[in-house]
Amino acid sequence: MYKRIICPTDFSNAANNAVEYAANLAKELDARLHLLNVKSLISSGSVPAGVWVGPDAEIASDLLKKTHDVTLETFGVDCTYEVDVTRKAIDKEISEAGGADDLMVMGTDGADSLFEYFFGTHTYHVIKNAKCPVLVVPEHKPYEKIEKIVAAWDYSRRNELSLSEIKLFLDTTGASITLVHISKKDTDISNDVYNAFKERAVQALGADPNRVSFDRIVSPDITNSLSTYMNQSGANLLVLTQYEHDWATNLFRQSVVKNMTTIAAAYPTLIMHV
Question: Among 115, 123, 148, 226, whose Cα sits 20 to 30 Å from the Cα of 50?
Answer without folding.
Answer: 226
